[in-house]
């Protein structure tokens, strides 16, 4: 059987894997290869927890391959050089990979494809960004029409299972994977991803539309790290969710809301694909030169979860401790940095990438530009989250806050979102001195809001 390299990047799964399936369909024995690219292992966005998750995911994939009589070849170096070498050593004729849309990946793949027989196939998104476009061929820059066009396209069917026995492969020498601590909240691997997905479908999707915004409930799927590294196929997820809704009419509303979030993921991937400059600057030109504050102390307080606004601080400490943050929390924390502290959204974008296990250039950049009101979708800049009201609405009893801010563990619900309003005698009784045991607010929200509005208006 002729040999082809299956170049694994962010598609760490065997089922419904278009790169792998294409190699098999075309009659090749796929040689699984992962390249430890120094530029991906160490850059301004590197997050130790995300790397730990990736390495654990590769180890899980290695075990799945071994169970089928195959192995994972790991090499280190410049991808073009490594591929050239492995082609020469193995006699492989082709290279198959899943297409990736970041500017770095596209430049890398174009360079490789000029010199070597690389074929990239669709798998990162359900629909390719170049297929979800306006009638006149322009890309969408607003979510709702994008989602309508996306839904109007026929849904591709997931591909079948991979054969239980792998075709025979030549044994090539490789490196072992670096050992890094994986995030406790997210055991890696395809089997775990599938288990979590099925549990979410069976137990929680019915309630998703109602519970998804609540910080104190586990109302969302927490599948983002698995989707980020393709341990779960997004196409399979959408397909199975829609099937589930057909069989369980009470789940229909939840499934619709869930698929809508998947379409947000597809939307931001498409924005990055069509407008790669968003990684460097605001999408909207009028907001590229806002007079951001240079305020390292405020930035440090935000990063450490010590702003004095409990809902912001709880979210930021959750991020540091677990490598994950709830979507509502991401919006609240991001809004606070940009609008209340008037600090450049790119500082927040970087911090999130340095800590999120699901850190994804497209989704993170999209989320930050949206929250800052400088991005594609029509999020008006004058919508400024009030951190106290957000807390009361999405963590009504303060349970989420108390979980992440042990210093406020005894503060009653009436004060937990604004502890500085607690009468001094109550503070004394509870043993929580605001300003000492927990910080006073580093800005006054009403004044900060007025400042942001005036800066943006002149933007
Ligand atoms: C400032 C900011 C930064 C963000 N950074 C990232 C990031 O780096 N990586 C990332 O995957 N998501 C990011 N998001 C989107 C969203 O917060 C997470 O996808 C979500 O919280 C993951 O939790 P979940 O898997 O339980 O989501 P669920 O609610 O269960 O949603 C299912 C899936 O849909 C996708 N999704 C959901 N919401 C969004 C969204 N708004 N944009 C894009 N995709 C979405 C994710 O893949 C998610 O796993 C960011 C949002 C904001 C506001």
TrEMBL record:
E.C. designation(s): 4.1.99.3
**Any idea where the Photolyase/cryptochrome alpha/beta domain is?**
2-132
The superkingdom of the source organism is: Bacteria
User: Record's InterPro entries?
Assistant: Crypto/Photolyase_FAD-like_sf, Crypto/Photolyase_N_sf, Cryptochr/Photolyase_FAD-bd, Cryptochrome/DNA_photolyase_1, DNA_photolyase_1_CS_C, DNA_photolyase_N, Rossmann-like_a/b/a_fold
Q: Which Gene Ontology BP terms does the record give?
A: photoreactive repair; response to light stimulus
Q: What does the note accompanying the cofactor annotation read?
A: Binds 1 FAD per subunit.
Q: Which residue positions does UniProt flag as site: Electron transfer via tryptophanyl radical? A: 292, 345, 368
Q: Which GO terms describe its molecular function?
A: deoxyribodipyrimidine photo-lyase activity; DNA binding; FAD binding
Summarize where FAD binds, as residue positions: 208, 220-224, 258, 261-268, 358-360
Provide the reaction this enzyme catalyses.
cyclobutadipyrimidine (in DNA) = 2 pyrimidine residues (in DNA)
Q: Which keywords does this chain's UniProt record carry?
A: Chromophore, FAD, Flavoprotein, Lyase
Q: What is this protein called?
A: Deoxyribodipyrimidine photo-lyase
Q: Taxonomy-wise, where does this protein's organism fall, top ranks first?
A: Bacteria, Bacillati, Chloroflexota, Anaerolineae, Anaerolineales
């Amino acid at each position: 059987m002729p040999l082809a390299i299956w170049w694994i990047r962010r598609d760490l799964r065997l089922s419904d894997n278009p790169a792998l399936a294409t190699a098999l369909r075309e009659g090749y024995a796929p040689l699984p290869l992962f390249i430890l690219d120094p530029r991906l292992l160490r850059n301004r966005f590197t997050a130790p927890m995300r790397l730990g998750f990736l390495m654990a995911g590769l180890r899980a994939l290695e075990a799945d391959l071994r169970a089928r009589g195959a192995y994972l070849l790991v090499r280190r170096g410049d991808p073009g050089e490594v591929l050239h070498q492995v082609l020469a050593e193995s006699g492989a004729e082709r290279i198959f990979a899943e297409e990736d849309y970041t500017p770095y990946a596209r430049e890398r793949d174009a360079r490789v494809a000029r010199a070597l027989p690389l074929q990239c196939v669709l798998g990162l998104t359900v629909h390719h960004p170049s297929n979800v476009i306006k009638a006149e061929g322009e890309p969408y820059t607003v979510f709702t029409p994008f989602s309508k066009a996306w839904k109007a396209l026929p849904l591709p069917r997931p591909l079948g299972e991979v054969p239980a026995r792998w075709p025979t492969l030549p044994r090539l020498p490789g490196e072992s994977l670096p050992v890094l601590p994986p995030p406790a909240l997210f055991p890696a691997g395809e089997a775990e991803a599938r288990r979590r997905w099925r549990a979410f479908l069976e137990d929680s999707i019915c309630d998703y539309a109602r519970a998804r915004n609540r910080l104190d409930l586990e109302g969302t799927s927490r599948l983002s790290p698995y989707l980020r590294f393709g341990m779960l196929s997004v196409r399979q997820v959408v397909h199975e969710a829609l099937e589930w809704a057909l069989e369980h009419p009470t789940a229909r509303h939840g499934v619709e809301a869930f698929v809508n979030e998947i379409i947000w993921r597809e939307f931001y991937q498409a924005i990055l694909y069509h407008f790669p400059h968003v990684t460097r600057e605001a999408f909207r030109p009028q907001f590229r030169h806002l007079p951001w504050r240079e305020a390292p102390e405020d930035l440090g307080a935000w990063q450490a979860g010590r702003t004095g606004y409990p809902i912001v601080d709880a979210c930021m400490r959750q991020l540091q401790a677990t490598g994950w943050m709830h979507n509502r929390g991401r919006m609240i924390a991001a809004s606070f940095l940009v609008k209340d502290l008037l600090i450049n959204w790119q500082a927040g974008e970087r911090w999130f990438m340095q800590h999120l296990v699901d850190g994804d250039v497209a989704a993170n950049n999209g989320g930050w530009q949206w929250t800052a009101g400088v991005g594609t979708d029509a999020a008006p800049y004058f919508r400024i989250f009030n951190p106290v009201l957000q807390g009361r609405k999405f963590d009504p009893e303060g349970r989420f806050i108390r979980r992440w801010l042990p210093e406020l563990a005894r503060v009653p619900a009436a004060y937990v979102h604004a502890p500085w309003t607690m009468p001094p005698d109550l503070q004394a009784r509870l043993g929580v001195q605001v300003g000492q045991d927990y910080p006073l607010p580093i800005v006054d929200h009403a004044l900060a809001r007025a400042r942001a509005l005036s800066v943006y208006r002149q933007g």
